Amino acid sequence: MNRTRQTTDKSKNRITALYERLSRDDELAGDSNSIVNQKKMLEDYAKSNGYTDLVHFTDDGYSGGNFDRPGWKEMLRQIEDGSIGAVIVKDMSRVGRDYLQVGFYTEVFFREKGVHFVAISNGVDSDINTSSEFAPFLNIMNEWYLRDCSRKIKAVLQAKGRDGKPITNNPPYGYIKDPEDKNRCDMSKPYEWAGVSVVRMLEKPEYMGDTVNFRTKKLSYKDKVAVKNDSDEIVVFTDTHEAIIDRKTWYMVQELRKTKRRINTEGESNPFVGKIFCADCGGKMHYRNEGKRAGRKWRGLPDGSVRTTPACYNCGNYNNSHDQSGKVCCSHNIQAKVIDQLVLETIQYACKSVRMDERAFVESIRTNICKLSDRHKK
């Protein structure tokens, strides 16, 4: 009776927070059965010990390793405001399964805010010093449980991933899961694709029909953000589902995407970047925009005029070679307007050839394509 009266006086005019947490939902439509049992247990204890102004703070479906829970954060906010005088939980694991975090809240934060803390099943009461001596060991054991669960889940995912089954919950954009086999993708109902989705298709091997597992990993079960795996840790299984992009096209696109396309002041990129090569060394020709610089006299002194340098293409191997002794090509360029004129004349010649003899033109194109394909095979 004396302890009950003392506790009631300490929490006078302040809320008694009853906190419940469950890491997994059951099949009930509302609160899970375990949450219902926790609420009843906490209410019975609070009423029998003289606590008043009971308010429930609930997190259903949240892991003990995650302290970013809406119910928990709201309770902390009200503790900061001075509205809460006591916190009651079923046991220490309901607070969380990170022993450092739990220790901070129960041993430091609650005490600083004058909050009375009770964990019923563990017999922990902050008003009784001896009851809290075993609390740090309980917190460590609760974290061991979380670590063990993480280890088991990781082992299951590793076995599933190395067996060629996808370990992601959602299939790549453009696919849906096969209703008869959740480990296969179905293309019978493809979605409409936005521009950003097409970009992802261009860089994901899944769109060639492959399954790629272990792209990322977590260094610790406490980590919230995954990091990229090394290439030798990634496992690829080919032809596991229907492809959207054929392999030849996919690899060709990867090469094209390596070419940087810079946008000019008018918001446009040069259409010939990555398509023009040096006739001497075979390196890519780099595009340079038109520029202006000060005109100079024959002695090198500025003469007050402005000189315009036309847009042109320079040999990339020469530009990228900083060591003069290691130059692989010479300094030469071709103006962009010359390229434009050559391309225009080629298009005009092709149009004229089609008008004169379309059949011969088509046959010529087909022959050239076959020769180019044979050259690549060699």
Jot down its keywords.
three-stranded antiparallel beta sheet; 11 helices; 378 residues; five-stranded mixed beta sheet; disordered N terminus; 39% helix; 19% strand; 16 strands; elongated; alpha+beta
Fold and architecture overview:
- The protein has 378 residues and is α+β, with helices and mostly antiparallel strands.
- 39% of the residues lie in helices and 19% in strands.
- It contains eleven helices and 16 strands.
- The chain has a five-stranded mixed β-sheet, with helices on both faces. A three-stranded antiparallel β-sheet has the order 12-15-16.
- α5 packs antiparallel against α6.
- The longest helix is centred in the middle third of the chain and has 28 residues.
- The protein is elongated and about 100 Å long.
- The relative contact order is 0.06.
Average pLDDT score: 77
How do the strands line up in the largest sheet?
2-1-3-4-5
Shape: elongated
Biggest sheet overview: 5 strands, mixed
Identify low-pLDDT runs.
Answer: 1-10, 25-30
Which oligomeric state applies?
single chain
Secondary-structure-derived class: alpha+beta
Percent of sequence in beta strands: 15-25%
Strand elements, count: 16
Secondary structure tally, helices? 11
Give the termini separation.
94 Å
How helix-rich are the residues, as a percent range?
25-40%
Order of helix and strand elements from N to C terminus: HEHEHEHHEEHEEHEEEEHEEEEHEHH
- Rg from alpha-carbon coordinates: 35 Å
